Amino acid sequence: MTSNSEAAPIKVTPWMALPGFKESYPGILAIVTIAIFCGVPGIPWPFTVHHLLGYIDHVLPPIYGKGLFLDLLHFNYVVIGLAIGIIIKNVFGVPKSWETGTTFTGVFLHTAIIMLGSQYMLRDMVKLGFTTVVIMVAFVFGSSILLVSMGKLFKLDNRLNGIMAAGFAMCGVTAAVATAPMVKAKSDQLTYVIACSVSFGIICMIGLPPLCRMLEVTQYSFGVLSATGVPNSAQVIATGFMYGFEGGKVAGFVNIGRVVLIPLGALFIYFMTTASEIVGAKEGISIWGTIKEKFPVYVFGFAFIWTLNTMHLFPKPAVFAMEKVMIWFFTLSFIGLGLQTNLADVKKAGLKGMMVGYAAGSIKLILALVVIVVLMRMGYMD
Question: Sign (positive/negative) of CA torsion 293, 185, 267, 286?
Answer without folding.
Answer: negative
